[in-house]
Amino acid sequence: MKSKNNLQELSLAELIDKYPYIESFLVEQKFPLVRKDLTILEIYHQLSEGEKEDIVIEGEEFLSRVSAYIENMQDFLGEKETGVELLSLLAGNDKDGNQEQYERIDIKTGEIVALLGPTGSGKSRLLADIEWAAQGDSPTGRTILINGEKAAKEWRMNGSKKLVAQLSQNMNFVMDLSVEEFLCLHAESRLLENEHELVKKVIQKANDLAGETFSATSQITSLSGGQSRALMIADTAILSSSPIILIDEIENAGIDREKALDLLVGEEKIVLMATHDPTLALMADKRIVINNGAIVDFIERNNREKDILRDLKAVNDKLAKLRKELRYGKRPSLFD
């Protein structure tokens, strides 16, 4: 619970400035919003007996109620510091019940991890284990640790506190809204401050990722697949409070993949990325290889692979240039 000692030192003005939603709560409790230079207890002690009766409960207890309300709102809004600095996987079993051949895999905030393996190998099962913070109670028997400890109940039971935000390769908007209206709706649902500033930032970042730009007034149902993915990646990076992001096959997204990953890790997220693309696989700091439901290898990128990545990026840049020239009816200048 938010410390009463900390709250009772704040003036009413400072309290409202730090927790804007507390103002409507105080109004509902019939607490007079006067003398905002005083603390809640100081104001309470200056109230008439009639005003105190309206509030029903006494000063110290009222402060505890304020503290509990702030705590609940921070949970709802995802404003609490997530504190997820380290995600750890403890070994479970493969599809045949055999023990996985590793003890523990650690993933730190800001790292990108590629998930590799054939279709049906168990990537989705691993992601489900992470999403639900499995404690040996999933089909794989894996255990997920947050900061080296078993995940707190809030990560498993609190619907408003999502550990993982997922971006699937297939997405379709069904709402008849403009891009701006859609983003404002999301920002409002999270009671974010500076809503319009954040929405503007999301659109700008999305256009940096998309091959073709769109405006705030564009209808979301009219966006191309690439524009939709770009919008949702920017939305997830800037508006979502989930500390872990899963992206499924970003290679098919039709966006600037490197910028997308930079945007996500720049927001201090852990990014897990299922991919079959060699460039994306080598962009990742680490690679988890899965087969028959088990993690069979965990590989950290080495210097040789960084050199290979530079060569692959050069090839991809040439292909992107060639693709753009042909798309706009120009003759290829690639080999000029």
TrEMBL record:
Alphabetically, the GO molecular function entries are: ATP binding; ATP hydrolysis activity
Q: Which family does it belong to?
A: Belongs to the ABC transporter superfamily.
Q: Which domain of life is it from?
A: Bacteria
Keyword set, alphabetical order: ATP-binding, Nucleotide-binding, Transport
Q: Where is the ABC transporter domain?
A: 84-317
Protein name, UniProt field: ATP-binding cassette domain-containing protein
Give the lineage. Bacteria, Bacillati, Bacillota, Clostridia, Halanaerobiales
